[in-house]
């Protein structure tokens, strides 16, 4: 990552963190959502970006984190300890699941990861005595003013985003990142040159899950109510990979750029095209597949500017 990229990221974080000083509650809520989705996208980048495995299990880890954190808080566990517990439980769940599901490849792995989401949702929905089933769970709220609560959760979400960003930088420059890139290029060849592909994939899958669990637990505390439909939303299953593909998979800044762009576009379309916002999401996916296979970071903006200047010269 260049110094320019790092500088732009720092400015972006400062802009998000200072929204309570110069914007209304709607903008602050949007900033919280951007930070939350940036954390989820940065987490997905470990398995989908660096390793090239198309996982759709992100929302399963997010939902499990919601319920572990929520149930712990309802049973008297302090909030920060509940978030930590959710992180540990989700990481252990992902490590055990990864040892099984990562034996699949390509489309089979993608379908298997979608099945994980449905299995988790059905278990939570059926375990009514603990999870509340379809009626959902109420989570204890902070007894602060609305502005103080918004600022607190904004800072927490930004903190999680910074941790996942730092972890991406570390992995990108570490031997683990090199091994994951090799697996994405050719897994059989990586195995032949001595890379323990099974171990590397399980580590990447675990890293892609653990902070989703943290984010889910924080989200549950923020909204104060969770149910299986919201916690295991099939739309979020698609959103997070699309955000990474929009920004640039396998890069450090791509997930942050993609998450910010997607959330802002989504808010604009929700406000102006209420009946067509899902169609817009489908349009973005089709556009990515055909015109931006490397994401926004791979676009040669210098060529775009030169072409625009050339077009203006011809007109004049």
TrEMBL record:
Source taxonomy: Bacteria, Pseudomonadati, Pseudomonadota, Gammaproteobacteria, Chromatiales
Any Pfam family hit: BPD_transp_2
An annotated Gene Ontology molecular function: branched-chain amino acid transmembrane transporter activity
Membrane-crossing segments per the record: 47-68, 80-102, 151-171, 202-222, 242-264, 276-297
Keywords per UniProt: Cell membrane, Membrane, Transmembrane, Transmembrane helix
Protein name: Branched-chain amino acid transport system permease protein
Cellular component, GO, one term: plasma membrane
Matches recorded under InterPro entries: ABC_transp_permease, LivM-like
Membrane topology: Multi-pass membrane protein
Location(s), subcellular: Cell inner membrane
Stretch forming the signal peptide: none
